[in-house]
């Protein structure tokens, strides 16, 4: 994996190598997907919509979540996860970060008097079949609430560094923590409430609700970083800056300016760079889930 080693070996890096490895990683990087296959519920048309969504800075996973997926995964042999013997360092890093989110959210949920259901994380290459539909790596990492799994093609980290200008292992960890934040929302029942509410709203209002959901996931990522550092001293000098840079790099305004040359705020689905940084910092500073109520915030 040319380039990944340099990222991990930077001078400022999370103290991750001594961390626990998660048992919830499915390595499907060597699963061969069939040739031409449309996305669930929408065929080639949905794939085209997904490409447009990427160019406009929208969240393609929401298109998958809104699609109708009826095919049973058990009917296709290529859906079955296979364990790879590959032991590359980036996959190892992802496993450690996932384990750390497990430790953190288990503690937080325990404090709330309930049990945390740990998500699984699927590593794939090129394309993958999820309970939310067929996905290609161009979509970037996503969370599927139907199977409670996070999906990521590790090549995304090369894009994060080269195309979005956000290198560093904490930037990589932030991406995982954000998707796990969506899992936390799912367990809290927030995801279902947002989904049901969006169906009754016009596009602009629905997009604003989506922004609130995404910013809350950013805040939850900050909550993880705060609690993990307090408990396990994971951060080093420069790590926070890497996370803030990653949050800024994937703001809707920045992505739209890069892809279409101008910004259309009504089409935002994740929030601006400034908003994403602010809510990540809010969770990072407080370490408290209750500080992440974006849905009742006077200012996003």
Description of the structure:
By secondary structure, the protein is α/β, with parallel strands linked by helices. The protein has helices at residues 4-8, 43-55, 60-66, 89-111, 156-162, 169-188, 190-198, 203-232, 239-249, 252-260, 273-286, and strands at 25-27, 120-124, 127-130, 133-136, 142-144, 149-153.
Quick structural gist:
The chain has 300 residues and is an alpha/beta fold.
The number of helices is: 11
Which class do the helix and strand fractions yield?
A: alpha/beta
SSE arrangement, N to C? HEHHHEEEEEHHHHHHH
Work out the number of β strands.
6
Rg calc:
18 Å
The best one-word shape is globular
Give structural attributes:
300 residues; four-stranded mixed beta sheet; 6 strands; disordered N terminus
SSE blueprint:
Blueprint: H1 4-8, E1 25-27, H2 43-55, H3 60-66, H4 89-111, E2 120-124, E3 127-130, E4 133-136, E5 142-144, E6 149-153, H5 156-162, H6 169-188, H7 190-198, H8 203-232, H9 239-249, H10 252-260, H11 273-286
Parallel strand pairs: 1-2, 2-6
Antiparallel strand pairs: 3-4, 5-6
